[in-house]
Every structure is written in structure tokens, then in C-alpha cells.
Amino acid sequence: xxxxxxxxxxxxxxxxxxxxxxxxxxxxxxxxxxxxxxxxxxxxxxxxxxxxxxxxxxxxxxxxxxxxxxxxxxxxxxxxxxxxxxxxxxxxxxxxxxxxxxxxxxxxxxxxxxxxxxxxxxxxxxxxxxxxxxxxxxxxxxxxxxxxxxxxxxxxxxxxxxxxxxxxxxx
Length: 171
Fold this sequence. Notes:
This protein is an alpha+beta fold. Helices cover about 25% and strands about 10% of the residues.
């Protein structure tokens, strides 16, 4: 690793582990165009889970925050394996944090911050969208979309007759 990202990791006292090998029939990362998609990463350190159990029953939000942070470190290891240099990462398009918790645990967003805080510290002001796999704070539903924009300079205000982009699929 060279450059500002490796310097930031060193400043934070983080040494990236070797990228984990797949544990089943999947690839650890995939490139499509300029995007790199990583497989889910567990909170492994030295080959072992750093904690087990459900948040709200066996673990508190602080332990969940640490687990999400470790997952982010493991994502960085996969991205390093994919790119050879984390400074080649220009933007974090999206991270999704899945949280194993009891039904009355409502601070999933604080757990997810373990990953997003670390990634923000490492990459600085590069963009990121965070999503969660469990809803917290009593939300009933969340919708997320990832789209491929074939006309990146076209904006609804400047498109013909003020036309609005149409959704590809309605849920």
C-alpha cells in the first residue's frame, strides 16, 4: 500500500489482514465497469469472530460498533486485494450493514457507525451511502435503489419538457 490511505491506516494503528478466502461457493469481490462489489465480511480478527450473540440480548451497541468496525477493516483488505492500492478508490458508493439483534434493540444506526466512522476516517470526504439490514428506532420500512445512470449530465430540470426520470421497477 502506498499513499494517503495507507498513511491514514497507519495513523489509526490499523494493519490490514490478508483478504479472507471465501468460506463457500462465492467470490470475495467482483469488478463490473469501474465498480468493485465485495462479498459480505464478518467481524473476524486473526481468523476468529470478535464477538457472538444478538445485540440487545448478549451484546450492547458498543460491542456491535466494534464488530462493524472490524467488518470495515476486512472490507478494506478485500478492496486492497482487488486494487493493489487503496488510493485508487475514488468513492465509496454504498455500504450495507446487517445487524443481528433482538426485536427491541433500536440503535442499529449506532452499530452501523462502527463501519461508516472508520471508512470516513480512512477515506476522508469521499462520498458514501450507508444502509442497514435491520431497522432501528421503530422504522417500518426503508427503500434503497442502486441504478446505472447512462446520462450522467442530464438533470430533470434540463431534460426535454421537464420530463421526470421513470422508475425501473415499483415495489
